Task: structure prediction
Amino acid sequence: MTSAPPILARSNLRIRTLTARPFVRSVAGVAGANTLITVAGSVGGLVLARSLGPAARGDLVTIVLWPTTVGSIAALGTTEATCFLVARSKRSDSQPIVATSAAAAVATGLVVALAGLALAPLIARTTPVATLLRYVFALSPAYIGAGVMASALQARSTGRWNAARGMQPLVYLLGVCGLAAAGRLTLTSAVAAFCAGQLAQLLAGTLLVRRTLGPWSRPDPGRLRPLYGYGVRSWVASVPRIVNVRLDLLILSVLPAVTSAALGNYAVAASLSWLALPLASAFGSVAFPSIAGAATEGDARRIERTSLRGATATAGVAMVVLAASASFVVPALFGPGFHDAVVALWLLAPGTVFLALNRVQGDLLRGRGHPIAVSSAEGIGALITLGLLLGLIPPLGINGAAIASSVAYASISVLLHRSLLRVRHAAAAAEVAGG
Result:
């Protein structure tokens, strides 16, 4: 699963020089890891769609999406805070931070798991789906804990971070393909494969953190204040973005007028559109620490130009190719039951380009020290998204959801660009005034 871009402050990805070649090399490295993870998820999604059909594929979206979304929000930014605090600390101080964050993750996960017992029957369309939903909610401590371990690795070892975060999609893919080959891929076994992937990521992350940071230590209650102090500030900026990206699927999953088959078609369209994001978002992942360390406003603007142009070009080309080939590729790969996904993909295409651009603009603003500008734009966007979804889904179904998402992403892009212009002008004026 994919969640929102993580904090990279003072990590191994920090760019020490601002020439074009090292910058592009760093982008290529991050993009490569992102792409492999996305491709693994897409191949698994293809196998699931062909084996389960539209209705069960839609039920799987509900079972996986709700617990991971609630867990991401309930964590209150502690995963991002773990990365930030570990990156700023000495190696000897890192383990107490990770131990404290891991303990907080377990406590939060247990609360989410208990809440899931009550939420499941309210969300699920059928009793079997509600039962499977409870199982995935019960895995919340492992899901949040795996995020903590991955964030700690991100602060100290980019290679091990990529290995840890790639474990879940790899195990999930192998499980799904193995079950399909054996003729045993059902909704229940698919959920079991997903849970196995989450546990594998937690185990791999835990072992790699031990190898990277040294012996384990006990949780330190005194470290909870800085953990949640930074985490909540990051949470305020990230939650609106999480909501904007997932709100369409969340609402479609609970509206009685939207069938499970329609939800399955929309999930396929959305997953295909997200293939345009790994390369584009890599520009923002590298630009965030680079622009934070830029020596002059001129250097910062060069980073911005490279990032924005690169993200727009890569996302634009990817979406043109996907949209042009959708009418024959989607039925051929996924089957005739997913024909409705084609139009939804066409309608999502322009919005996906804006979504890629939004991620980069958000990273640029955070790198310039203005995360509140990001949260303000995403918060307004969430309200726009909610209003459009509620207004367009009843008459237009999943096509209405696609239109709503594209319009909302475009609106957020305008708001972020205006904020970036204001910050840029203020920085230039301050540089001139300073001499």
